Structure formats: structure tokens, C-alpha cells
Amino acid sequence: xxxxxxxxxxxxxxxxxxxxxxxxxxxxxxxxxxxxxxxxxxxxxxxxxxxxxxxxxxxxxxxxxxxxxxxxxxxxxxxxxxxxxxxxxxxxxxxxxxxxxxxxxxxxxxxxxxxxxxxxxxxxxxxxxxxxxxxxxxxxxxxxxxxxxxxxxxxxxxxxxxxxxxxxxxxxxxxxxxxxxxxxxxxxxxxxxxxxxxxxxxxxxxxxxxxxxxxxxxxxxxxxxxxxxxxxxxxxxxxxxxxxxxxxxxxxxxxxxxxxxxxxxxxxxxxxxxxxxxxxxxxxxxxxxxxxxxxxxxxxxxxxxxxxxxxxxxxxxxxxxxxxxxxxxxxxxxxxxxxxxxxxxxxxxxxxxxxxxxxxxxxxxxxxxxxxxxxxxxxxxxxxxxxxxxxxxxxxxxxxxxxxxxxxxxxxxxxxxxxxxxxxxxxxxxxxxxxxxxxxxxxxxxxxxxxxxxxxxxxxxxxxxxxxxxxxxxxxxxxxxxxxxxxxxxxxxxxxxxxxxxxxxxxxxxxxxxxxxxxxxxxxxxxxxxxxx
Amino acid sequence: xxxxxxxxxxxxxxxxxxxxxxxxxxxxxxxxxxxxxxxxxxxxxxxxxxxxxxxxxxxxxxxxxxxxxxxxxxxxxxxxxxxxxxxxxxxxxxxxxxxxxxxxxxxxxxxxxxxxxxxxxxxxxxxxxxxxxxxxxxxxxxxxxxxxxxxxxxxxxxxxxxxxxxxxxxxxxxxxxxxxxxxxxxxxxxxxxx
Lengths: 533, 194
Description:
CATH superfamily of the largest domain in chain A: Cytochrome c oxidase-like, subunit I domain
Oligomer: heterodimer
Number of domains of chain B: 2
Structural class of chain B: alpha+beta
CATH topology of the largest domain in chain B: Ctag/Cox11 (Pfam 04442)
Distance between the termini of chain A: 47 Å
Number of strands of chain B: 9
CATH architecture of the largest domain in chain A: Up-down Bundle
Membrane topology (chain A): Multi-pass membrane protein
Family (chain A): Belongs to the heme-copper respiratory oxidase family.
CATH class of the largest domain in chain A: Mainly Alpha
Helix content of chain A: 55-70%
Pathway (chain A): Energy metabolism; oxidative phosphorylation
Structural class of chain A: mainly alpha
CATH topology of the largest domain in chain A: Cytochrome C Oxidase, Chain A
Strand content of chain A: under 5%
Largest sheet of chain B: 5 strands, mixed
Number of helices of chain A: 16
Radius of gyration of chain B: 24 Å
Transmembrane segments (chain A): 34-53, 73-96, 117-138, 165-191, 203-230, 263-282, 289-310, 322-347, 359-379, 391-416, 428-451, 471-496
CATH superfamily of the largest domain in chain B: Ctag/Cox11
Enzyme class (chain A): translocase
CATH architecture of the largest domain in chain B: Sandwich
Strand content of chain B: 25-35%
Radius of gyration of chain A: 23 Å
Shape of chain A: globular
Order of helices and strands of chain A: HHHHHHHHHHHHHHHH
Largest interface: A-B, 40 and 42 residues
Largest sheet of chain A: none
């Protein structure tokens, strides 16, 4: 190609087409779309693994898979959902919405943005392909089988050969999310439109800004943990090996120092989404904007001093136990502030219940249920009974599925008109909502009961007395899994522009810069920054 | 503002954040020594001192009896016996007590073992003083050998009064490969030096 042609390209910024458009994209909207589709694909993969888990647990006894494969299923399900579905899903929303919300033309570091997305599919290719390793004669068992928390020495001394693939892929996921987080911070700090002061930013931007700081603080710690694992496995160090003078319990401290802020990384952006949707459909200003910002920041700060509540049964001095118990319970104060603010926003509002609002209200109620069981788990003596039972599984699925995932659905229904230019199909949407709402509760609510009765998590089999509950849990699981195909249909219809054409502001009560650009949002927006009064 | 200065500002913010990310990566490794210090102070992981206590007890508290229980476990790769001569002893704080441990190696080759102690409750760890222990050094077990390994300890007279029972657990590990690896490195290094 001649130099003249290259110069020409540089001057006109016309959008490349076909595969190149996506591979080389530096456009925040295209990268956001890639993230969102990737996240949905991983949600489906992780969901498929969960379906196999629930098939095995449909009846007591061993029917379909052997326990060793079951362990690989639970491990990969957790990893795919946490690092593949929830985190990239929120990064996708951040990519799409943050520049639109703060009046920026794009993300601040577009090339890095491209890179942070494109290493993700390869990270998951490496991780998921390990499932097929033994088919090629390389190692048995195939995939990592030590749970998504990969406790040492189970993962270091007893881990399968594919543990090294796992380490590599976790490194790549970590690099991807650190770069994504850096991009968000640089964008928010440097690219806000004139007049968009920090305390005027939409809460979704605020919660993402705080999330980004959490990511930069803890993803490197996770990288450190897997690096120590790698050197323990191959280079003769003994960070976690008692025989060499290390300590396996250290692993749990390092892991949960990452792991607890990580759970807020997966929920803070959700708070931002709900804080955008509820005021729109209540036709009122968000109640207590400033308190929302401070509550988010407090939750983020507190997340660094509660990690050992995951380890009460590991043993620690009484003073430590009490400290971590009180700190954990303290988190319910800022979280409570948020829930009360959402309820107060709805109080005496002119409520309508369009699809995004339905999901948002379901989130507020079900997330509060999950928070309440979290509060129960925070009580140390009680935790000794609940630890590693299905009660814990019920707790974190309530906050992650009917919490984080529900808000992503809410966000999708809320912003799909802006992304695609057409309104999401109402009938399919309603079916998707009600079907998911009922099935998610059938799926996760009975888990509280079997957990309290003592059914341990991560086992391929269970005692006979849990059979009835598990049958219904599995039915709920299949039902919830199938319901998500409705969402796929909604998204595909929108992508094909099939549906009612969306106006620039499809929701009557919506406020914010994102509604001032046409629907679908043009390839380039806010090249001249808007002025915020 | 000009385009140039924005790019400059972006790069500066990027640099700061990258440095922070790298610092947090370092922090993960800094947690290791930090954790060890915390463990020494609080007995978090129940580790007892890995060196022999050189001072004897200051006094014996005759009117207090504490039960000390012993647990033995075999780590990965050890398939011989590993046990203590007695499951529990009742001692007065300050009383010097000897307990024998036995380990055997049914394999046809020598193995090098390392035993790792741990005390429950963890806060009692620093009140358990050992004047002699097989865990201070690596123990070589010859092929087919059964070895008697003494451990001499006393409890600190200052042991907090609410502790009436403490459990001392030993896990024995086969470290033959580790030792071989270190030796090879030393030999290789020497070869390079020459």
C-alpha cells in the first residue's frame, strides 16, 4: 500500500468493515459490543457446565459423570462465570456507557482497550481446552479440578498438569482486567466533558471508577498468588508447601485478600446500573446521590479488611475472628444505605414497570435476600455450621445471579435501544423476565434448606434425605438455563434491527448525556464535548 | 486545552496506575514475610519455634496440670509408620517432658524426611518450648529403617490460664527430591565456579 493511501486513511477515520472492524477496533462501542457478546457466550458455557452439574445432582447416587469430572465442572463453571461472564460483562457496559455518560468521544486509551479485550478469548480458549487434554494423552485428570478458589496444596502439589494452563490463563485474564480498569480511570479523570464535575457523574460511572481502583489493587495480588503457585510447582520454592517451610494457610490469606474485593468488583457496577434505572422509571431524582457515592467508597474500603471471614474455620486467634466478624457486619451499613436509597427513590414516584425496571426491582429484593444470608454467614459460630455447605452456594448465587447477572439484564433492556436502535422485543422480554425470576428462586432458594441441613458443596453425590430438594433445584436449574435462550433471541433480534424503532430517548423519565445522541448511537459521538450545566 | 496536553495527561495517569499495579504485585510477595511476622506474634498458624530453646523453665507450676495431645500425619509420598509413643501426657507448666516419636521407611532406598509441627490453639504455640526435636533438622531414614526420634519440651509457666489442653501435630514429609535438587544446584554451581 502506498504512503499516500495510508495518509488518506489516517485523515478520514472511516470505519473498517468485516472481520477487521472487530479485530482491529479501537472504537469503544465496538469493543463494548465484543465484550458483551463474549460475556454472554461465557455465560452460556458456564451455564452449560452448570447444567451437567445439575443433571448429575438430579438424583442421589452416581449417574452421568464420575466425581473427578464433576470437580472439573465445578471449577470451570466458577472460573467461566466469574472471570468470563460477570467481569467482562461489566467491562463491556463500561466501554459502551462511560464515554457516552461523561460526554467523551471514546475511551482514553483505545489501543489498550483493543488489547484488553482480545487477550480474553485466548485466555478462555486455553482454560477451557484443558478439558480435552486427556483425550490427547496429556495428563489425567484433564482440567483443573480444585475449585475456582484453587487452594494450596490441592492445586500446587496435587493439581493436574493442566494447572499450568490455568495459571497462564488467570494471568491473561488479570492483565486484561487491569488494563480495562486503567482505561476506565484515565477516561473518567481526563475525558469528562466541561462542567461534568465528579459529583455530577452518573452513579454507574462512579461505581465503575471505584471498581476500577479495586481491580488495580487486587488483580495483581491474584497474579502474585498464581505466580507463587507456578514457582512452587516448578522452580523449587515453598511459598505454600509446609515441607519446605511454607504455609498452605498463607495461600488462603493471599487469595482472599484478592477474593473479597473481587466480590465487590462484581457487584458495585450493578449498584450503579440500578441507580440509573430506578430513578428513570420512578420519574424522580435518585434519593441521596452523595450518600450513594460515599456508601460505594466505604464498601470498597471495607472490602480490604474482611477477607478472613472466608476462613473462620481455618482457625485464627479470637481477636482476629471478632475483628473480621464485626468488619463484615459493618459492610451491611453502607449496603443498607443503598437499598434504602433505592426504595426511597421509588417512594411516591410515578412508577411504571417496563422491563429494565422489573429486573431492577427484582435485583433489589433478591440481592437483599443474598445480603441477609451473607450477614448470617458473617457470624463466626454460625459460620462454623454453614461453612462449605449449600447455604454458602445459595448465598453467593443470590448475590451474583439474581444480583449481578440480573442487573446486566436490566442494563441490556435499558440500553439496547441506544445500542441497536430498536426496542427489545416486549413479549420475549416479559417471558424472559418472569421465567428467569421464578426459576432462579426455584433453583437457589431450596439450596438454603439443604445447606442448613448439612449438605456439603462441591460433592458429586449427596445423602438420600436431600433428594427431593435437589430434584427441584435441578428442575429450576434447567428452567433458568433454557430461559436464557429467550434473552439470546431478544439480543439477536436487536442485532438484526428487527423491532420497533427506538427514539433517541426511549424512556420518558431517563436523564443523562447518553440519551442526547441518536439511537442507535453513531460510530463517533461527542467529538465536540457537550457542555454540562 | 490542546490535544497534545490531553495525550500527555493520559500517559501520566496511565504511568501512575501501572506503577500502582506493579506495586500491588510486589505487595502479594511482601505478604509472605509479613504473614510470617504476624504468625510469630499471634501464633496464627500454630507453628512452634524451629530452633531449640536454650533456656530451661524458670519454675514449675505444680498446682496446674495441662494435657498435651500428640497427632501424627503422613504427607504426600510417605508410606511408612509415623507415630508417637503416647497419645497424650499430663504435664505441669515448666515440667520437662520427653516424648518419643517413631518413623519407619519400608522403601528399598533412603529417604530424607522433614516433620512440620503445628499447635492448636495457635496462641499456645509460643508457650511450647522444645529443647530437642527431630523437627529441627531433616531426618534421613535408611532403607527399611525404623527410627526412634525423641522430642523434649516444656510448657512456659506463663501459659494463659484458659488453655487446659493443647494439641501438637506433626506432619512428616518426604523431602528427598527437594534435597537432591538443592544438592544438584550446589554441585552445578561449584562446577561453574571451577
